């Protein structure tokens, strides 16, 4: 037929080397090797006499669509249906599985967690099938509720919420059992359009991007952690430890010209080209080498999360005498109107509360400032 004639022309022009024939899948397999098939014998005279080379056409998920950063949110988000996300992974397509239920994000217990269920998650997010179904909080422990347990997908479902599951409480499963996935990620070639130069290790350096056939640096005006996170993700180097705006201390022997400015990312983009930028026009306060944008990337990072319910539970109002607030005033912990108060008489009304901060990441939290520059508060 006319539909198949281009494919037959390609088949005739190539020397074909068949490996498999009579492949029969049920649709639930996570890999082609798990389907029923027959190997082609080396001495076969006509290994595919009744057919032709198999051809597939794959559609990229929303994350991989060109200009995906500027497209509308997925339909499931617009309609307020249950959503799903991956957290804690260093690379695209991996992380702890979290689902949205009753306006609260929660995790999935790893009881009976397998590749079929993991593949449903991966496909729902726009990736391929799952490479690994991870158990035992391998991508870090979550916080809050645990929404699902004993998820048993067949592999053909379009959403994890369509699979048989058990609703549980944290009493039945702990966050040390949070399920995670590693997905097969479509190759889009984004990592071929970015590189690092001048750094002391392979995980740091000035960011250089390819524009057309030309490589060049990126203006550091407005270069923040969000842009650095996208750059590290595009490079396949994990998280951003530091967004560098002055790179004078790195090797400048092979410096290229600046080719990109005005980069502003939301943080979830797959490539710097998906972020807002000035396009072909260049507008940068300082185009010198020392002001090129740079990054320091890491496979692991801390992820600090405030325990908001504790703040709400412990908050109260206290009227505190001024003579007990001298130290707080010296450290600028009071509002500016306190300067005009009748010291040491009178009082100030304070909002008091307890707080806890959890580290959900896979690395220790280390402040950017060294201990030598810390300011110690002795009266709190």
TrEMBL record:
User: Where in the cell?
Assistant: Secreted, Extracellular space
Domain of life, per the record? Eukaryota
Q: What is this enzyme's catalytic activity, as reactions? A: L-lysyl-[protein] + O2 + H2O = (S)-2-amino-6-oxohexanoyl-[protein] + H2O2 + NH4(+)
Q: What does this protein do, in the record's words? A: Mediates the post-translational oxidative deamination of lysine residues on target proteins leading to the formation of deaminated lysine (allysine).
Where is the SRCR domain positioned along the sequence?
Answer: 84-184, 194-298
Species? Crypturellus undulatus
Q: Which Pfam families is this protein grouped with? A: Lysyl_oxidase, SRCR
Enzyme Commission number(s) of this protein: 1.4.3.13
Q: Give the protein's recorded name.
A: Lysyl oxidase homolog
Gene for this chain: Loxl3
Q: State the family it belongs to.
A: Belongs to the lysyl oxidase family.
């Amino acid at each position: 037929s006319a539909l198949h004639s281009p494919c037959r022309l390609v088949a005739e022009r190539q020397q074909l080397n068949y490996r498999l024939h009579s492949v029969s899948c049920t649709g639930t397999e996570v890999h082609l090797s798990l389907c029923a098939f027959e190997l082609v014998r080396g001495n076969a005279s006509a290994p595919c006499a009744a057919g032709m080379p198999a051809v597939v056409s794959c559609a990229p998920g929303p994350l991989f669509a060109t200009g995906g950063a500027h497209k509308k949110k997925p339909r499931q988000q617009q309609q307020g249906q249950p959503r799903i996300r991956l957290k804690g992974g260093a690379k695209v397509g991996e992380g702890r599985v979290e689902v949205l239920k009753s306006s609260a994000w929660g995790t999935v217990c790893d009881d009976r967690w397998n590749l079929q269920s993991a593949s449903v998650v991966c496909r729902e997010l726009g990736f391929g099938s799952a490479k690994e179904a991870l158990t035992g909080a391998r991508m870090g422990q979550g916080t809050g509720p645990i929404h699902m347990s004993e998820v048993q997908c067949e592999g053909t479902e379009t959403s994890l919420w369509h699979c048989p599951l058990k609703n549980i409480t944290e009493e039945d499963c702990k966050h040390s059992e949070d399920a995670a996935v590693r997905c097969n990620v479509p190759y889009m070639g984004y990592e071929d359009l970015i590189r690092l130069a001048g750094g002391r290790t392979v995980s740091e350096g000035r960011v250089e991007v390819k524009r057309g056939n030309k490589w060049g640096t990126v203006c550091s005006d407005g270069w923040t952690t969000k842009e650095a996170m996208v750059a590290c993700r595009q490079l396949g180097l994990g998280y951003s430890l530091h967004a560098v705006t002055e790179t004078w201390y790195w090797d400048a022997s092979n410096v290229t010209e600046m080719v990109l400015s005005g980069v502003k990312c939301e943080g979830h983009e797959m490539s710097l080209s998906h972020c807002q930028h000035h396009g072909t026009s260049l507008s940068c306060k300082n185009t010198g080498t020392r002001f090129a944008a740079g990054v320091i990337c890491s496979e692991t990072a801390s992820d600090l999360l405030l325990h908001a319910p504790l703040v709400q539970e412990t908050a109260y109002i206290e009227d505190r005498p001024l003579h007990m607030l001298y130290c707080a005033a010296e450290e600028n912990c009071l509002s500016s109107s306190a300067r005009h108060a009748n010291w040491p008489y009178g009082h100030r009304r304070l909002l008091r509360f307890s707080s806890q901060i959890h580290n959900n990441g896979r690395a220790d939290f280390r402040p950017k400032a060294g201990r030598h520059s810390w300011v110690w508060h002795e009266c709190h």
